[in-house]
Amino acid sequence: MSAHLNLSCKSPTPELKPPKITIMWRNLGTKRSISKSRHGWWRNVPIAPKDPILGVTEAFIADTNPNKINLGVGSYRDDEGKPVVLQCVGKAAALIDGEFQSGESDLSFVTESVKLAYGENSGLMQERRVAGVPALSGTGACRLFAEFQRRFQPESSIYLPMPTWSNHHMIWRDALVPQRTYRYYDSESKRLHFAALMNDVKNAPERSLFLLHPCAHNPTGIDPSEEQWREISHLFQVKKHFPFFDMAYQGFATGDLQKDTKALRVFLNDGHLIGCAQSFTKNMGLSGQRVGCLSILCADERQAIAVKSQLHQIARAMYGKPPVHGALLVSKILSDPDLKALWVHEVKGMVDRISGMRTTLHGKLEKLGSSVDWKHIVKQIGMFCYSGLKPEHVDRLAREFHIYMTYDGRLSMAGVTNANVDYLANALHEVTKSEGASSLVVSLPKAPIAEQTLPILADSSAQWEEFFDGDSRQDFIVD
Ligand SMILES: Cc1ncc(COP(=O)(O)O)c(C=O)c1O
After folding, report:
1. How far is ligand 1, taken at its centre, from the CA of residue 39, in Å?
2. Ligand 1 near 370 CB (within 6 A)
3. Which CATH entry fits the domain spanning 87-339: 1.20.1250.20, 1.25.40.10, 3.20.20.70, 3.40.640.10?
4. Domain named Aminotransferase class I/classII large: which ranges (predicted)?
């Protein structure tokens, strides 16, 4: 049977009737040339590098050992190692069930999210200076901002802390924004490298854009103190820098949602214009719903209207609008005093469980007589312990003990439970037996990485290795 393409069309007048053209597909090429072109389209596509978190999770799932532990995952787990649906979420779901899901819900979601980040009484909402839009979770909020930055500050770079969540590098890379890094972590002392951070902020050209983790820094679990935030904010004023806060763990640093916004408060009190990406993935356990908010504090209402219109337009071409169900859940929880109180209580419960596990794990390692100084397990905050374990330790833990984590030695404390903490402590002790007290040191570049646009198309591991100072395993920092 031959295929015909009939290009004839109905003409209003018989005289203008176009000639009937019939194309015989059969005559358009030989079988050989057709099959060649059919197979030739995507020959140039290399396999993308394995996703670091999926790699860890895949290995964990494939392992049949009953003692296996997954410490790679960046989401909360209960003391049985199970994902949790918060009670407030269950109750909110019952309440919104059957509600008319109109576009109006966006309005209250953004308002409630902004109040949560900027403060109930900050007055900024009344002044209508905040341009806020719903986003596809924290990742989507960062991506939207990166795109906005490229369009409206096309000459600018983004300064990322070293280390940071590895996806930050890829988000700004794909938005074609050049990247620089600023120093954050001192591997030797396992503390914030405050002097180096201030130096890099000072030496950046005036009016640079910086990404800051306002609380529970991923992966180091180390935040500046309030006094240090004040100094950072002051220096930002002097240098006229723009702070973009990526707040993926509000509540997870101190267990108190309001206390965790102290960095934003300091900057707002100093009169900065700021940007903020919020995620409800971790603190409401809404990983599958992809709920987030991007907000930009502007100089006045007119500017906020313009910025918001541009953010909407960028999102429209990328994905239209985010799904509404998760946003409805969040706005219900944030606007209902009882549900909000329940949520605050549940966040505290998650954080208390994690910090209890820190104390237990540390105590067990001390009891075992470990030669390594593990104090950082209890000093660090948030969901992670940036352990300092080297890739060879991580390999051994997986091979011999069926314990999985990312190659940068970051342990998700949410995966530690009363049932597995003894086994974990023993394994950590075993693989570090030959190490001295201060030998668990993460190797990070000593100086900030110079401005560069990361490889845009093929992520060849050689290019990544070069970026990560010869150690491609640095890219195992994940969610
Ligand atoms: C620092 C940081 N920002 C943003 C995100 C994005 O999270 P999500 O897109 O799941 O909300 C994460 C996730 O792990 C993160 O660690």
Report:
1. 38
2. no
3. 3.40.640.10
4. 67-428
How far apart are the CA of 135 and the centre of ligand 1, in A? 12
Q: How many CB atoms lie within 10 A of CB 391?
A: 14
Q: Does residue 363 register a pLDDT over 70?
A: yes
What is the helix (H) or strand (E) element at residue 37, kind and residue range?
Answer: helix 31-40
Q: Which residues pair with 22 in a beta bridge?
A: 6
Worst-scoring range by mean pLDDT, 117-131, 356-370, 404-418?
117-131
Atom number, ligand 1, closest to the C-alpha of residue 74: 14
Has 246 been annotated as catalytic? yes
Cα-to-centroid distance, 435 and ligand 1 (Å):
33
Q: How confident is the model at residue 30 (pLDDT cuts 50, 70, 90)?
A: low
pTM above 0.90, yes or no: no
Give pLDDT tens digits for 228-242.
999 999 999 999 999
Is residue 239 packed enough to be buried (19+ CB in 10 Å), middle (13-18) or exposed (0-12)? middle
Catalytic-labelled residue, pool 282, 308, 364, 390 = 282
Domain boundaries, the chain: 87-339
State both tokens at 100.
């008319």
In angstroms, rounded to a whole number, what is the distance separating the alpha carbons of residues 297 and 115? Answer: 12
| Binding site membership of 279 for ligand 1 (Cβ less than 6 Å) | yes
Euclidean distance between CA atoms 41 and 39, whole angstroms: 6
Give, for ligand 1, the residue of 144, 215, 246 to mutate: max count of ligand atoms closer than 8 Å to Cβ: 246
**CA-CA-CA-CA torsion for 141, 142, 143, 149, nearest 10 degrees?**
110
Nearest Cα residue to atom 8 of ligand 1: 138
Atom number in ligand 1 closest to CA 280: 11
DSSP 119: -
Q: Tell me: the pLDDT tens digits for 70-89?
A: 998 788 999 999 999 999 99
Q: Which residues of 295-324 are buried (b: 16+ CB within 10 A; e: fewer)?
A: bbbbeeeeebeebbebbeebbeeeeeebeb
Given a cut of 60, whether residue 279 has pLDDT beyond it is: yes
Q: How many other β-carbons are positioned within 10 Å of the β-carbon of residue 392?
A: 9
How do residues 33-49 score in pLDDT, each as one tens digit?
Answer: 656 566 688 989 998 87
